[in-house]
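User: Structure please.
Assistant: Input sequence and predicted structure:
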Amino acid sequence: MISIHQAIAQLFDLIQLILIIRILLGWFPNINWWNQPFKLLHDVTEPILAPFRRIIPPIGGLDLSPIVAFLALGILQSIVLTFV
């Protein structure tokens, strides 16, 4: 049986994997983010990335918001797993 601690850790791992896929697909400019499955990927990850994009503007065309999002997710994961 899977514990709550393991389930939460796996959820954070899944979120990070989905973010990595989104970042890698961002390197391909011809992707239409309004077609499935890309729309689903966009809809899942945009609420995580958008707040960081508002705070950190692109530097030389390079979006650094995913780096900050990963750091924030790691901190949040540590805090949540401490209390579980």
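The chain has three helices and no strands.
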